[in-house]
Specification:
By secondary structure, the chain is of the alpha/beta class. Helix 3 links the parallel strand 2 and strand 3. The longest helix is centred in the C-terminal third of the chain and has 29 residues. The two termini are 41 Å apart.
Length: 306
């Protein structure tokens, strides 16, 4: 599934980020702890250059804690990157973010100018909620739908830190098909951009492989089904997602699984691992190389022969 969902304000936001970076001391990139790789915007790595970056794994209360530790270790291998695992449901964890900013720039924190931080992130990773908690007042709009914030804001957090907020930015073309599915699974992409049953089949296949015990406990399964289709049919029957004649309403069953997964009702689940991402990155590079080769071949065929 290759998703192209790039509202006009996101293109504008990317330009604003690039223009404002020279005035920024540190970038705070908010990620979804359940999908740290897929919720990273690769454009930001290019834009920030050698600017210090704090990668915040938000919603860590929904993610597998063992996997979160592995991801933090992986992310901090990049030059100039620090990481924090937090949850907006546990506001006390957010204090670590401000403390880390002050540790990175102790002199600026005490100066008149203060520390200028820019907070970025793709839609629906909890960026606006995080800002409101840090500011101790409602500044940024929040909602369960992605793409709520549509303009940059500057917020004085006190204690020597000024924060520039940006709209959530997805990159123009999500090349890794599995990343597209994971973004859809967590709700980072509007439901109008994909089919629930398609996404639910992807999620069910992964859960059967990585978290079968969670499924068995949540849905009181006597045994683990062999396929994602069987799993969704079992869930549909157990939860009364039925059509006339006793047939399972797969759309309702799919929606139910995704809703419960997003809410954490299936337990603390991470949808990707660093090892998986290495394999998928290699596969994506191979596919892109093949596309380049095909375009070059077509161009060569169209060119007049000398």
């Amino acid at each position: 599934m290759q998703i192209q969902w790039y509202p006009g304000h996101m293109h504008k936001a990317s330009k604003q980020i690039k223009e404002n970076l020279p005035n920024v001391d540190v970038i705070i990139e908010v990620l979804d702890a359940r999908i740290p790789y897929s919720s990273t915007n690769p454009m930001l790595a290019t834009l920030r250059g050698d600017k210090p970056c704090i990668k915040v794994l938000n919603k860590s209360d929904l993610a597998d804690p063992v996997m979160t530790e592995r991801w933090q270790h992986c992310l901090e291998q990049e030059q100039g990157v620090k990481s924090l695992a937090i949850s907006c449901q546990q506001p006390a964890t957010l204090k670590q973010l401000l403390q880390l900013c002050r540790q990175l720039f102790p002199a600026k924190a005490k100066s008149v100018k203060g520390i200028h931080a820019m907070i970025v992130g793709i839609p629906n990773v909890g960026k606006s909620t995080l800002i409101n908690i840090l500011a101790n007042r409602t500044i940024a709009k929040t909602g369960n739908e992605p793409a709520i914030t549509k303009a940059q804001q500057r917020i004085n957090l006190g204690d020597g830190i000024v924060l520039s907020d940006t709209p959530g930015v997805l990159w123009p073309n999500i090349e890794n098909r599995n990343s597209g599915y994971r973004l859809a699974t967590t709700g980072a992409i509007k439901e109008t951009a994909m089919q629930n049953d398609d996404v639910a089949h992807f999620a069910a296949e992964y859960l059967l492989s990585a978290y079968p015990d969670n499924l068995q406990q949540r849905y009181s399964l006597a045994q683990i089904p062999g396929t994602e289709q069987e799993l969704l049919e079992l869930i549909g029957r157990k939860r009364g997602c039925l059509r006339s004649g006793g047939r399972v309403d797969m759309e309702k069953a799919s929606k139910l699984l995704l809703t419960e997964l997003r809410a954490g009702n299936l337990g603390r689940i991470t949808l990707e691992t660093p090892q998986m991402m290495e394999r998928e990155q290699e596969e994506t590079r191979r596919i892109q190389a093949e596309k380049v080769a095909k375009r070059a071949a077509r161009k060569a065929r169209r060119s007049p022969k000398g």
